[in-house]
């Protein structure tokens, strides 16, 4: 067996967004590198014969960012976005498979954001911002570019492309609202259109409205407001007429607890179809009949069908099912899924299973030794059922412990660890297991996979019971002789970074911590982060909630900085807008003030996720070196 290197982790290519042709004979997917080496992420479109008769091959030969493959209704044309002509400015392209001819279909000067081929073979719906005007160009030349908030803010608008003439028209509908998503009724009827008042992540997701738009008549109808962060539209026919289903956050909690909402279009009756379920919907997939629903179900995934009166479970799958696509009949699906020891690949089959793998995009990992991964089930201090994963050091068994243990907390918090291969560019279990560490991946309350109440329980109470849930998992592994209580580390990115910073302010049990893009002050994040109101729901208040102290002060790691004695590695992207760099600076200055051993690393040009190859390599190597320094003593 070959050893695992940082280069093996970041130099791979992963499949994304599979698109299954309506006739099920071909499938297209995007092949994307894990890391970026230049100014642009060069991706590729690949075609797969689903029967395996013809080997996988590239659909185009361009050096470009290619994305969003979608098929025409007759399966003869593959539409996709590419910036081959002007990097950073995607345009719609069409690939006619019979003629082996690719055509550039748009030259929209603002670029195309998304597209939807309609049942009318001559029309494609587009999402695109307004093209720049001569006045805009003049302002840019003269640097008369003062930003007045609320003025000239970009909006994605619905456009219609006539494939016969190449003309793009913009229907005068939805006012100045930002268009988020489109879905056409399966019989060729109107489009369901999801809009927000703004493209701003803090404001827009809370202002969603659902509309109907007839592309033939140009008439639009407003169906009313939808829940926060609504997405994943799907039509289905019922005895009482057409229904529209979508996924949204369950009110009144802004931060977690998604549900499937079902709107009867004619009567306007809205129902929550997943209330009380002990799992969480993540994706709807439209078919000609009832939509398919993907559920995060503990460490695994359940696939179900949304019937008129109930949800019918179709299959259970280990780990995750991502990017579900289906033929119009719903008889065949394609998804991204993997195993504990194999990264995700494209799989196809019937919704009831079994699924068959048709790609192998990371063959270089086939001979790599990985640590044994096993699911954990245990109970919190208050009796709540919890789960997680344990990854043992490579080549070792549990009976050979105790081992140094690093606990890696997931982000979100509305996310989860699923029973899949845990090898990524960020601090991940298999990367540390290759260096001799046992790794705990806990799923504390507040996460996904156990229903609405489980997810919503941390709103305004972050760092409380979710923290004791994590400690319970650590204590379990110590009691079982797997973890060495004198060699404990903790790490995390985003909300996981918050939990790592929170942990070292609450206890001295950890000998080292890693805080990646972590939340240090919830009031500051609500004021400056791109998802401010969602963060305010987690922290419990904002700085403008009157004279303090505020509830968020009691759950912010910065309030406990004077208690920190644990060495801390801080990693942060310089251009992070989700959790701005100021959060890391705040922690750094506090640790410097209290003379706490720490290292502060800023990655230029990076956002909330680290994308450049050399930076990803640095994250991996620096993470391992940091824990080696403190846990190997």
UniProtKB/TrEMBL annotation:
InterPro entries found in the cross-reference section: 6-blade_b-propeller_TolB-like (IPR011042), AB_hydrolase_fold (IPR029058), Peptidase_S9_cat (IPR001375)
Keyword list, A-Z: Aminopeptidase, Hydrolase, Protease
GO BP terms, alphabetized: proteolysis
Annotated Peptidase S9 prolyl oligopeptidase catalytic domain residues: 429-631
Keyword Protease: yes
GO molecular function, one term: aminopeptidase activity
UniProt name for this protein: Dipeptidyl aminopeptidase/acylaminoacyl peptidase
Origin species: Micromonospora parathelypteridis
